[in-house]
Fold these 4 entries.
Entry 1:
Amino acid sequence: MTLESINPANGRLLKSYHEMSDNEIANIIQKSNDAWLEWKKTTFDQRSLLMKKSAEILRARSTEFAELMTAEMGKTLKEGKAEAEKCAWVCDYYADNAETFLKEEIIETDASKSFVTFQPLGVILAVMPWNFPFWQVFRFAAPALMAGNCGVLKHASNVTGCALAIEDIFKQAGFPENAFRSFVAGSKKVQAIIENPLIKAVTLTGSTPAGKAVAAAAGNVLKKTVLELGGSDAYVILDDANLEMAAESCVNSRLINAGQSCIAAKRFIVTEAVADNFERLYVEKMQKKIMGDPSENKTDIGPQARTDLRDELHEQVKKSIKMGAKCVLGGIIPEGSGAFYPPTVLTNVSKGMPAFDEELFGPVAAIIKVKNEDDAIAVANDSVFGLGTAVFSEDVKKAEQIAAKKLDAGCCFVNAFVKSDPRLPFGGIKQSGYGRELAHYGIKEFVNIKTVYVK
């Protein structure tokens, strides 16, 4: 089998890769486990030096890596550079903090000494998506390696070049050759990889169906999983919101990565007192965004990652319109080559439509008008997803209480769009997955939290 990397801006083949055989994959896992037996003995200071070097490489070659992301999945060049910088940040963060996060915890009991220690598990499998082809990997790899684990990556097939580049970064930084490896393999290989006895746990970022499949396979062999899945993030705009700021923030969130982000704003729930003004401002700002060649600095929105994904998105839009939604902007596939889809705004959206119930993974906004604050919260929570939400209000204290206690999601922001940050835990509830990445919570997902009792 051959894996192909195709430029979504023009449809041209970038490179073909020969898929690894089952024996080649098993051999890599064995070598990674052999590497782990030595790597787990290293000190935090030794690991930190190499992780800091990884950060240096990411910053020094950020333009090169951005160009690779742009070519393989259509991310704008400026977003690619920012992604490389964010990866460097997470490397530095865990290099600086891993030892503190995993420090032994003394617990007073009837023993002469009792404590909790955090020990690495072994080789961890990461199954990662194409939309943030560097960031999704590094936010797993940095804490996993600093904890003393080794990692193997099954990346999305269309970003195989990114996968191999990441493997090379860790090698150049001085990590043992097999401390982090990338498989060149399609999704059909994942179950067998999970079942390999040397794989100790699995993390996946991707769609909810993919998460369910990986969770089932891992559960069948009793292996720990962390899943960061889809979302239909609800942004609540209340009567007293600063509409200019809210509209700007909401547009920027919806169009991050051409709308292809699990935590991009997707449903905008607006109280009726300000709904018309918000809609007007939102559409005006969406209209100003430039769609085009992702390698050009003026471009705000590049193509979708693949034409099939673009076509699926368009079907969701058409079905929503057929069910009563109104398209006030976009909604038409442009002529010419490339997987482009324009900034699109749907109004009159209600439950039962794809624009309300499903994740629209592209630059399509669903505006939902509600009567009041209570209705807005109820509609925001009326979703199978629970990844991120935001609330906009000039009454910051009230908004904080709504975010903290009334919205059902793993991440709730006030007067700002949802984003990941190495210092804060990241993850969802309901069909958006379980477990947490980042902060001290993330590094503790793949360690043995071991009790030691000394009489």
Entry 2:
Amino acid sequence: MLEPVSAAHCVDAIPEVAFKKLLRSSVREDTATCPLRPQADSVKTARDVTRSTLRQWGLAELGDDAALVVSELVTNAVRYSRCTPGFYTGHAPITLMLLRLRPHVLLAVADPSDEAPTPKEPDFISENGRGLYIVETYSRCWGWDALDEGGKAVWALFHSGA
């Protein structure tokens, strides 16, 4: 099993990266959160929110790579949310979070599943199994953090250069 790597550790222990705090945070210009339903059309919503947020932050050049990574993270969250209590009653929330930590942008997707993300050897013929390979390829680093109330946040870090 892959041990979680703290996002704060990856960005030199920046104390602001506390997902519990971000999930409840008030509106800040360097943070965006978007609740998502555990259904397939949430992937498009997440891509659109990611691109528009990065454009607002003047970081449109990260849009394509970040949207691809967010697509993979949300797809995984939707898949694993279906196996958690509350899914059939609509209480299996997924949350997209974007945080600007100059010169980085952190993208995270929180979901109610406690199952650790496990990278697989990519099979380029299969239609699935390449998600975390894509996340690793397009981001500076990635990892996950367990949430105190259950579930996890899987994150990817991008260097914005701005």
Entry 3:
Amino acid sequence: MAAAKPYRAWFESLSDSSEQYPLEEIIYTDRAGGLLQVVHDMEALKQHSADEWKQKFDRRARRSDWPYGSGVWGKKEWVLPGVADENVVSMYEGNTNLFWAERYGRELGLENLWIKLCGNSHTGSFKDLGMTVLVSQVKEMISQGVDIPAVACASTGDTSAALAAYAAAASIPAVVFLPRGKISLAQLIQPVANGAIVFALDTDFDGCMEIVREVSERDGVYLANSMNSLRIEGQKTVGIEIIEQFDWEVPDWIIIPGGNLGNVSALAKGLDMLLELGLVDRKPRICVGQAEAANPLYLAYQKDFEVFEPIAARQTVASAIQIGNPISKDKAIDALRRYDGVVEQASEAEIMEACAAADRTGLFNCPHTGVALAAMQKLLGRGLIKKSDRVVVVSTAHGLKFTDFKQNYHEMRLEDFAPTHANPPIELDARYDKVRDRMLQEIDLRFRG
């Protein structure tokens, strides 16, 4: 009887499958300057049937058998099979709630709306899914004698928080480059608290990205941004996990906000593996939502992706996706073409109103989720999403990381529009009769009117 093939993965050029590199090599692009991808030995993975993989993943989920209780590392063979278990750096990321937004969906006229709450994670965003993989691979490489002085990223907030936390857990120096004054205080304090070397630069995200690329090329610092395709291996598990949570049934739509666009290609890559290994037999449609102030993918979509032109991103409350020249644009466009995808945009008012309306039904959304929610409402309004469709909106971060924009909204300190759902505190004298009368008035007005 033939011995089972070992599980393997390697870097490979997107344009030339013969150009391959081991994952232990410090490399980010192919010879032509294009992005790499991580490729798995699918024949080895096919040694297990679809039912066997489903059972294996189900047995591991949320258990204490290190490191397989993690939503990412429970799928280790599909993610990073070559890393020794002792080099895995995990906060038990993933396995986040797939929330049935019954009331919110009913108010919109949707029967089957679900929110994938990726912000219910260690650092409060979906970036944990990719960072656990990248930092684990770095720790594996260091254990093999590879000289890596530090790991670095450019960030608009969430990536820096994830890198700082996972690097701290692994005792690996982390360096973070942020655009000064363009991220929330909650996002800034996370890498500071975790001991990262934090630089606040007088530029935007794209300028920070140029700096981090230069220090990685000249000084040997390991690059942790999404142009490093290791991150995609962790982020792809969100699509796998959504379908696993539906008992391996495929939703009709998955809607995701897009900035640097690595999350879009990651979502498609996870779905690709499910299809190739026979765990599902159909595709969902994908929608990418972009802020109108930072919408290069949307503009390209309007021209059927025949032309993609970087833009100068303007300020938006959705600061983590305020990116005008996304690194992963080619991968994202390929994913959208293969998944019958669409791109929609949302204005600043639409983002904030979508967040506020959803929050009133028990959610607490980040502004980037608001972009996806606003995009979803537009597709629903056009009839592209049917009222009976099963729709999943990927919520990328926890709303507590973005309280400033919520406070400005509810205190009605916005220049351009009057909020529809503002709910400022009611200030009264501490007298029972006044409080009682106003309380009963508000109950009648809000819930019985």
Entry 4:
Amino acid sequence: MKKKVLDITNEECPMGFLKTKEFIKENKEDKIIILVKGKKDFSMLQNSLKKNFELTVTEKKDNIFEIHLN
């Protein structure tokens, strides 16, 4: 299983959400990691993703969150 990383730290909702949705569709078979910046964008994305995925979240420096889809 390959590890794929999507960096949407320069995107704001809803564009970050749309890119995440497409990324997940294209990489269903891979381990997915999403990097998002800002508590508001992180919270909105997390709430959407946790409906369909089990998540592991790590807070990095500079208000960046790393979301692992399990």
